[in-house]
């Protein structure tokens, strides 16, 4: 009998192992094959109101170690023939020092720079995205994502939406209200994505620029999945003022409305540069970016990872990993010597009386963990470094990272 039991035990064990081992191995393999890619999705060049040549801008980001970059000029794609007067280029620079054209020639050589016309009245041709791609892209190392900042407005309200991975220009669609303007533009993004059969991500930019959006408006347009929780432009009122909430507060307020009242998915938060100035000046590059977890460095895969929330925003803090499994959020912070990292788990609990965007827990560990209690509408993490931001966009800025809200899928109609 004993032998029989042992044999049965072995058989059962074998069966269990056969059932679960391959899956466990497979899951592990999938995890191992995912990589983090660093990118900026909001960048301006001479194609609209930036003050440097697109090749100089792309070169800067690539040299800084970014894996991908989206040039997102206002209502234009980097396509076709475009010439610019050197005097117009020069007039966009502040202060003395070499001109953008001089620096451009020095970096790429006389042969690369295409100039026409008489000296003093010469024009320079701007390189197209196709040309930039063949010059800078390297498989698995550097990728350019086509983008446009659809730049619309309703009365004094600025409605700017970045469309990433599109192929055809979307002119601003206008509307009869802030919400309607946003909806009309997003409809065109969706229409193009469906027609071309490719993922196009649309993120609403700088909601506090001219204090254009309220939390209610951000909440209402549930077809918008992304907004900029941090934008490096110093003029976008990131922290709000006496009468307006800051961008992060807006995020919690809008997400609380979505989950509590509308049973809709929350907004994900993107961090970007919105860089315009590359010769000194205060609208400079390198302040905000996203880290995206994907299998390979391909635009479609990056877009899908964004749609699944597989990313975080950063203004200087790096996470080796962030995960949400079985009701537990875990972060792994890449620590630097002498720097302290404060992680706040921020969320909103169910119940009309519960505070919006409250601090649920705080940790100074490099591996902070939060176990959901069950009454949270969502929880997100914000990591703040003790280190000053090396190129701050507002006074007293520290380096930070923002992870996406989790734990909300059970509240959505038909969700898990
Ligand atoms: Zn804008
Ligand atoms: Zn912009």
Summed up:
With 416 residues, the protein is α+β, with helices and mostly antiparallel strands. The strands form 3 sheets. A 13-stranded mixed beta sheet has the order 10-9-8-7-6-2-1-11-12-19-18-15-16, with helices on both faces.
Entry keywords:
416 residues; alpha+beta; TIM Barrel; 3-stranded antiparallel beta sheet; 9 helices; 19 strands; 28% helix; 27% strand; binds zinc ion
Spatial separation of the terminal alpha carbons? 46 Å
What portion of residues belong to β-strands? 25-35%
CATH class of one domain: Alpha Beta
Bound molecules: zinc ion
Which stretches of 5+ consecutive residues score pLDDT under 50?
Answer: 22-30
Order of helices and strands: HEHEEHHEEHEEHEHEHEEHEEEEEEEE
**Major sheet:** 13 strands, mixed
What form results from the Cα inertia axes? globular
| Integer-rounded radius of gyration | 24 Å
Q: How many β strands by DSSP? A: 19
Q: Calculate the mean pLDDT score and round it.
A: 93
Lateral strand order in the biggest sheet: 10-9-8-7-6-2-1-11-12-19-18-15-16
User: Would you give the CATH topology of one domain?
Assistant: TIM Barrel
Count of individual helical segments: 9
CATH homologous group name of one domain: Metal-dependent hydrolases
Helix content: 25-40%
CATH architecture of one domain: Alpha-Beta Barrel
> Which structural class do you get from the secondary structure elements?
alpha+beta
């Amino acid at each position: 009998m004993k032998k029989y039991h042992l044999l049965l035990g072995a058989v059962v064990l074998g069966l269990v192992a056969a059932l679960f081992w391959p899956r466990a191995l497979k899951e592990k393999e999938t995890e191992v094959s995912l990589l983090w890619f660093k990118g900026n999705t909001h960048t301006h060049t001479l194609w609209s109101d930036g003050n440097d040549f697109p090749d100089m801008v792309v070169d800067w980001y690539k040299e800084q170690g970014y894996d991908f970059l989206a040039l997102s000029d206002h209502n234009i794609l980097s396509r076709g023939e475009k010439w610019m007067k050197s005097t117009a280029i020069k007039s966009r620079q502040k202060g003395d020092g070499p001109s953008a054209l001089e620096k451009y020639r020095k970096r790429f050589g006389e042969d690369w720079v295409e100039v026409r016309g008489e000296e003093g009245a010469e024009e320079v041709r701007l390189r197209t995205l196709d040309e930039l791609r063949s010059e800078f892209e390297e498989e698995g190392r550097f990728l350019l994502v086509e983008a446009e900042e659809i730049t619309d407005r309703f009365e004094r309200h600025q409605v700017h939406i970045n469309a990433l991975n599109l192929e055809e220009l979307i002119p601003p669609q206008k509307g009869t209200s802030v919400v309607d303007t946003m909806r009309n533009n997003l409809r065109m993004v969706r229409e193009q994505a469906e027609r071309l059969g490719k993922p196009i991500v649309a993120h609403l930019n700088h909601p506090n620029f001219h204090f254009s959006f309220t939390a209610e408006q951000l909440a209402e347009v549930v077809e918008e999945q992304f907004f900029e929780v941090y934008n490096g432009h110093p003029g976008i009122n990131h922290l709000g003022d006496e009468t307006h909430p800051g961008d992060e507060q807006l995020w919690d307020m809008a997400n609380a409305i979505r989950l509590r009242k509308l049973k809709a998915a929350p907004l994900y938060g993107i961090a970007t540069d919105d860089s315009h100035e590359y010769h000194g000046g205060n609208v400079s590059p390198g302040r905000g970016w996203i880290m995206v977890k994907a299998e390979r460095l391909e635009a479609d895969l990056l877009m899908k990872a964004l749609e699944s929330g597989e990313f975080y925003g950063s203004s200087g803090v790096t996470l080796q990993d962030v995960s949400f499994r079985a009701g537990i959020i875990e972060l792994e912070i890449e620590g630097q010597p002498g720097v302290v990292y404060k992680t706040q788990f921020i969320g909103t609990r169910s119940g009309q009386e519960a505070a919006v965007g409250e601090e649920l827990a705080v940790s100074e560990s490099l591996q902070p963990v939060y176990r959901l209690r069950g009454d949270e509408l969502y929880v997100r993490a914000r990591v703040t470094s003790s280190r000053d931001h090396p190129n701050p966009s507002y006074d007293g800025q520290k380096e930070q990272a923002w992870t996406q809200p989790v734990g909300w899928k059970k509240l959505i109609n038909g969700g898990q």
